[in-house]
Amino acid sequence: MTFNLEKLASLAKPQSEKEKEQARYRKENRDWLRMSQEIALCLHYYLRKAGLTQKELADKMGVSAVYVGKLLKGGENLTLETICKIQKVIGEDLVTVAKPYTCKMVITISTWSNFSPDAINSDKFFGYQTLQNDYVPTAGDAA
Fold first, then answer.
1. Distance between CA atoms of 70 and 78, rounded to whole angstroms?
2. Is residue 9 a part of any domain in this protein?
3. Average pLDDT, the chain
4. CB contact set of 69 (below 8 Å; sequence gap of 6+)
5. Distance between CA atoms of 19 and 98, rounded to whole angstroms?
6. CA-to-CA distance for 40 and 69, rounded, in angstroms?
7. H or E stretch including 66?
8. Looking at residue 108, what DSSP letter applies?
9. Which of 29, 88, 131, 137 could cross-link with 141 by S-S, CB 3.0 to 4.6 Å?
10. Which pLDDT band holds residue 35 (cuts at 50, 70, 90)?
């Protein structure tokens, strides 16, 4: 089968300026548009799961039903305020913020002398050796 470029050229229409502008807009805003679509899918899921209408969701969020309709289309550039309202209503986090300044590991220091040497060396008492070797006491620790 041969490909007829002349026939293709005669059938194809050139893009209008409006279509070109829409394509540019989607390309430039791809990242937040994708996130907005994910939030819209989450809202659709929540509405279906909770058996709510758009109007009921709008009432719970304190916004208009028309705005909820826009959110459900997935093309709205949401504010943090709107995201917080949605999260509060559905009871789940949609967007999380990385917190590199928080401690991700909790170390509990106990007085090891409460355990007999036989208990510490038993198979049931795991982790002592690892903690003992990895733990470096600081000036603020109790002796």
1. 10
2. no
3. 81
4. 54
5. 38
6. 10
7. helix 65-73
8. -
9. 137
10. very high
Is position 32 within any domain? yes
Calculate the dihedral angle through the C-alpha atoms of 92, 29, 62, 46, rounding to the nearest 10 degrees: -40
Q: What pTM value is reported for the model?
A: 0.59
Domain count, the chain: 1
Q: What percent of the chain has pLDDT over 90?
A: 51
Residue 96 lies in a domain: no
Token duo for residue 136: 């470096």
CB 115 within 8 A of CB 125: yes
Q: What CATH number should be reported for the domain holding residue 73?
A: 1.10.260.40
In a domain, 7, yes or no: no
N residues, the chain: 143
- Tell me which residue range forms the domain holding 30: 15-90
